[in-house]
Amino acid sequence: MSRISITQLEEMKQKGEKIAMLTSYDASFTRQIEEAGIETILIGDSLGMVIQGHDSTIPVTVDDIVYHVSNVARVSRRALLIADMPFLSDSSPQKALATAKRLMKEGGAQMVKLEGAGERLAVIETLASHSVPVCGHLGLLPQSVFLLGGYRVQGREEQEAQQMLNDAIAIQDAGAQMLVLECVPRRLAEEISKALVIPVIGIGAGAACDGQVLVVYDMLGITPGKLPKFVKNFLEGSGSVAAALKSYNREVKEGTFPESEHAFL
Ligand code: KIV
Hints:
It is built from 11 helices and 8 strands. By secondary structure, the chain is of the alpha/beta class.
């Protein structure tokens, strides 16, 4: 079984086939996620919250991500593995290159994800010019939670929406090959997905994105407390983790997840 390539994901977008992504941080979930046919796995810095018990992603270190990516990569055979660049590990092009080197060479990731545009565009350009595949991340940026004052929908104001569209195009032009949009009104996410050639993966960004991502612990109902409205519990009524992961993959592919109740206006 050969590994999913970025080219295959771009072809899926061109054909209107939806891409499924889930987070994973260990070998056991990775085996099940791949068995369910999900194309991409994100070793997200959400591990700071769901694995380590912090209340933000800020404390996560490069060592943490390298450890979890290597657990995932050791058993992964098919999914494209995307590793998050932790807070401030991408604050300059040189630092980002050093981080990417560890995530890819020691960890085994095939792509790195970093949050934001602006000064990050030079970082994306440098990574891309050194053959590091990059996934951008716009909308709600969890690493900027203290600046944003909480986990809120982004891009509701017209000026903010226009800026996000411009940033998305700039991220693509800088050489990124994928973009995650988090907590963005569905019309704006649709506009951005249509404007870009690269696949746009949404979380709380509506059904018109080219694919969907969720935190695996959220969609299995393991995360305690009140969850964001974009999360659906796929374990409920499905009987097993394997069946829940397959339902997620099927619903993403059929376009029945997310429904309007999981999206923001
Ligand atoms: O860290 C993560 O899991 C993420 C997703 C929420 C997109 O960035």
